[in-house]
Structure to design on (306 residues):
């Protein structure tokens, strides 16, 4: 029996291992999220929930591109209130739930946070980084002042730890992370998708109805890794890495950059629900082979070498 510890603590949220699904991937029902947990994830993350149900953009909302996927779902979700029972059901089965959410105003963010906090979510993930909505507030996190204000408003009403999920579509992500820290964030999730587009040469038009979308998958990994690296140098908060993690080696690289845990989304397409178990087992093998006793022994190790 291995003596290794694979559990992690992210701002007081204790997880059996450092893997989660990325928000938006399989987060739309309790039954799918339960399968993510049964697939081995340490916690599950809901689709971003808003103050009211929303149908999202018209199809096509997704296209496979070189090295990944472009999506422009447009924040489709059943509304935070509807999802309260799903959160309660998952928690009753012992599944730790990170509730991802967004708002159309600072007041919305506060109200939804309060609802999800009362519902018993184990952590809240504030989505200030959706690339796919025209409304200014879908991308509040492009601006330091707004990031700080939203975070502070959410913190005022939240019992569980608050993660703020940041966008790579900014000039200096470290500055935005500092603003979230000033607002009282307990952790940073980095990153949301990278804005891109696809054009069909035969039809001579953009493929996505929304024209642009968010890029995820392997093509995003090196950008996400650099974002985690910059954030770790700028703030004194735990970081959850997200963007192009497909296997244990990717996860370890994010940890060496300073991430305490990783979210895995697009890789589910190819590897299925078992991807979480696969990654955790791989991390365990890596720790063992390199003589480490726990995840925290490798968090940020590459920063010391740079
Ligand atoms: O629903 C979406 O279009 C979406 C969201 Br909320 C997000 O945060 N990131 C993304 O790539 N798509």
């Amino acid at each position: 029996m291995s003596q290794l510890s694979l559990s992690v603590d992210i701002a007081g949220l204790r997880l059996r291992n450092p893997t989660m699904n990325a928000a938006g991937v399989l987060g739309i029902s309790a039954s799918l999220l339960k399968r993510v947990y049964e697939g081995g994830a340490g916690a599950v993350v809901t689709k971003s929930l808003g103050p009211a149900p929303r149908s999202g953009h018209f199809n096509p909302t997704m296209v496979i591109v070189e090295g990944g996927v472009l999506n422009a779902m447009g924040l489709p979700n059943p509304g935070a209130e509807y999802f309260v029972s799903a959160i309660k059901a998952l928690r009753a089965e012992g599944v730790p739930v990170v509730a991802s959410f967004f708002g159309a105003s600072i007041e919305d963010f506060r109200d939804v946070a309060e609802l999800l906090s009362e519902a018993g979510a184990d952590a809240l993930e504030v989505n200030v980084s959706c690339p796919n909505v025209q409304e200014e507030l879908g991308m509040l996190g492009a601006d330091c002042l707004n990031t700080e204000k939203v975070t502070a408003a959410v913190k005022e009403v939240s019992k569980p730890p608050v993660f703020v999920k940041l966008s790579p579509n900014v000039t200096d992500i470290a500055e935005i992370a500092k603003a979230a820290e000033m607002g009282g964030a307990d952790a940073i999730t980095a990153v949301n998708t990278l804005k891109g587009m696809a054009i069909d040469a035969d039809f001579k038009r953009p493929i996505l109805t929304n024209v642009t979308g968010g890029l995820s998958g392997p093509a995003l990994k090196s950008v996400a890794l650099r974002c985690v690296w910059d954030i770790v140098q700028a703030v004194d908060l735990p970081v959850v890495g997200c963007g192009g993690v497909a296997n244990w080696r990717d996860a370890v690289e994010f940890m060496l950059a300073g991430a305490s845990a990783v979210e895995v989304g697009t890789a589910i397409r190819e590897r299925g629900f078992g991807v979480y178990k696969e990654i955790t087992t791989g991390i365990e093998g890596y720790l063992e082979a390199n003589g480490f006793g726990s995840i925290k022994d490798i968090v940020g190790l590459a920063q010391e070498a740079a």
Summary: The chain has a mean pLDDT of 95.
